[in-house]
Amino acid sequence: MAVGKSTTKSVALILGSVRAGRNGPRVAKLVTETIQKNLPEEIELKVIDLAEWNFPIFDQAEIPFTVKGWENYTSEITRNWSREISGHDGFIFLVPEYNSSYAGPLKNAFDYLYNEWAGKTAVLINYGARPVNALRGGSHFNDVISDLQMKVSSLIPKISVSTMDREKTAAGDDLVFYEESVKQQVQADIATAWDEAVKSLLTAPASA
């Protein structure tokens, strides 16, 4: 009996910071808890931590735009990265903000590939030390990935460290906001961006 192709969609939540003491895992926990409330059974979620990949600065000979298929990369880490990213239909990028823009490790990992990202669904979540209205890294990264015709949710949720109790946050696994209303607004924004992504995912063909 023939087995039909799976219609399950895979979404990777990518932690874009690799530094010691980062808030990325705490942001990932908040995001995961929020979207689990509206995670259709047709969608699987996987967390990818760039700190576990240990990418060198991009220096490969191939131009990613010209490479079709993971087996055509010469670097082992790029072949592995290509296979990983090719298997996902959408992405939630956690975009840490350093010096008014996105973090270098995130851009570096993104630059290793091209066709594996192109045209897929994406949610951007921007976080950093500046006040919410001054965070720009998410919009800057949006400019980058939109060039690859990625379908990016129109709302970019922003999380400001200035709204948190840093001592309590650093002591545990959760982001500890001074005001519960701020956390609720962040979660509402994440849910809105995710809902838009879900609609995109469920109408697109599954990745191989």
UniProtKB/TrEMBL annotation:
Top-level lineage group: Eukaryota
GO molecular function: FMN binding; oxidoreductase activity
A Gene Ontology cellular-component term: cytosol
Signal sequence, start to end: none
Gene3D superfamilies cross-referenced by the UniProt entry: 3.40.50.360
Domain NADPH-dependent FMN reductase-like residues, every copy: 11-152
InterPro entries named in the record: Flavoprotein-like_sf (IPR029039), FMN_Rdtase-like_dom (IPR005025), NAD(P)H-dep_reductase (IPR050712)
Protein name in UniProt: NADPH-dependent FMN reductase-like domain-containing protein
Organism of this sequence: Orbilia ellipsospora
Top-level taxonomy: Eukaryota, Fungi, Dikarya, Ascomycota, Pezizomycotina
